[in-house]
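INFO batch 0412 | record 1 of 1 | parsing
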Amino acid sequence: MNADLVLLKKGGAHKTFSLRSAVTILGRRHDCDLRIPLPTVSRRHCEIQQNGEALKIRDLDSTCGTFVNDKRVNGDSPVKAGDYIRIGPLIFVCQIDGKPEKIVPPKKAAPAKPKKAAPKPAKSAPADGLDDSFADLDASDSAIDLDGLDSDLEDLEKL
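INFO prediction complete | emitting tokens
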């Protein structure tokens, strides 16, 4: 079996990492087989096991969790060709023996219908006298620029 993880980048670009060992450890530590130098990735985040016929992933008690097709991994979870693996902010596509041939980003869920907003209570000054500087902060558009991480991601090819 020839298994790869294909990292999906902004703008549709992608980068392939071959899984050559029977067990591949992914995480932030320098001794991980696939090093992901991001603060939201645990030191030893997860492991991928292959036995020649099947691929399994196991979360290693990471802080933010490991997800396959948006489902949190608990224990050993099977991974099939075309499955999406999310580790921190990164999304990988599992490619086994060249399948799927075409790598595409996951489909986004349909936006939920907005609920009727409850009336907002009147604002009062905080008890400690500090103003509420972050009340209007909108972080929904924040994202990590993976292009700046290319040099660090080259370290990932230690496999």
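INFO post-check: The CA atoms of residues 57 and 109 lie 24 Å apart.
INFO record closed
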